[in-house]
Design brief:
four-stranded antiparallel beta sheet, globular
Length: about 325
């Protein structure tokens, strides 16, 4: 598969993006009733799909067997996570994360079916969430994902199907239904709707919204509608960064905290690092990438393409220009 189908992240890193809205779990811990806690857990499961919107269709790199990824956000958000690729055939990735209030772990495995015009990804792994104070233990399997226009057209992602979140401590069940995209549908797309029931089957809350923007809940006993979750506004330059969220853009950072990570960490993969440091042509006018300065490409972030696209040169901090690129800049190639 051509590398331009990828984004400069490993699937092990992509799993950690499930925790972008982990503050929802902190709010759930503070709730008194188990049904209200489940409402916030439902919001957390829905928020995990928000990172696949904003035209983010790049495929993450497949993790190597034994590849790991550590993410320590205790200083900023109070949690940390570790991911490891434990099987190559079939591919299985395991994740464990924890804070002072909760523990979240999952086994990520899936099957894929090619349907001609689209690819259907069917998750088979189980996700677990444990609240340490109440002892509530939740499990669920993620909803199927459809990647459309595989052969011709612009790629876009959709979620569909029903997901049940079970509290094994109380018997409560939260059901979330992802409404598939419809060309003839009216109103807003990417809708979700759901409900929270107790062990006897009685409904306590209803939930509605979209999986890429926001989610609301309301008690069947009345009262005001509660705004559970709102997706973070993507950065202005997200289109130039593979449609990534702000959190995704930080996953390859190698700061003082990450300097001691394992040699098997995804940040140390040379192929991912090379792709991150070499940007594709934003106007899609050529496929040849060159460094703007005299440094090797892997040592320089000032990269561009031979067509002389101005979008890249405006943000270049390098002061030692490459003679080849300087010549191209004086006589940029016009599109055919």
């Amino acid at each position: 598969m051509p590398v331009n189908f990828n984004e400069p992240l490993s699937f092990a890193q992509r799993l950690c993006e499930d925790l972008e809205y982990a503050h929802l779990l902190t709010k759930a811990v503070a709730c008194e009733s188990s049904q209200e806690r489940l409402v916030w857990v439902m919001a957390f499961t829905v928020s995990a799909f928000a990172s696949s919107s904003n035209n983010r269709t790049g495929k993450p790199f497949n993790p190597l067997l034994g590849e790991t990824f550590e993410l320590d956000r205790r200083a900023e958000h109070g949690w940390r996570a570790v991911v490891e690729q434990v099987s190559h055939h079939p591919p299985i990735c395991c994740m464990h994360s924890e804070s002072d209030d909760w523990t979240y772990w999952q086994e990520c495995s899936f099957t894929m079916k090619f349907r001609g015009k689209y690819l259907e990804v069917l998750p088979t792994g189980l996700s677990h969430l444990l609240f340490k104070k109440s002892g509530d233990h939740y499990t669920w399997t993620k909803t199927p994902t459809t990647i459309n226009n595989i052969i011709v057209g612009k790629l876009w992602v959709d979620q569909h199907g029903k997901m049940d979140i079970t509290n094994h401590n109380t018997g409560d069940v939260g059901t979330v239904e992802y409404i598939p995209y419809s060309y003839f549908g009216r109103g807003e797309q990417r809708k979700v709707q759901g409900k929270v029931t107790d062990a006897s089957g009685a409904v306590h809350y209803t939930v509605h919204g979209t999986w890429d923007k926001d989610l609301f809940a309301q008690s069947v006993r009345g009262g005001a509608k509660q705004h559970l979750w709102k997706a973070n506004v993507p950065p202005k330059y997200t289109e130039e960064m593979y449609g990534m969220t702000l959190m995704a853009m930080t996953l390859n950072e190698m700061g003082p905290v990450e300097a001691g990570c394992c040699p098997t960490d995804s940040r140390r993969r040379p192929d991912i690092r090379q792709m991150e440091n070499v940007y594709p042509c934003p106007l899609l006018r050529c496929s040849v990438l060159v460094s703007r300065c005299a440094l090797p490409v892997h040592d320089c972030l000032c990269v561009g393409c031979v067509c002389g696209c101005p979008l890249l040169w405006a943000h270049s901090p390098c002061l030692s220009p490459n003679p080849l690129v300087s010549k191209i800049m004086r006589t940029p190639t016009s599109p055919k």
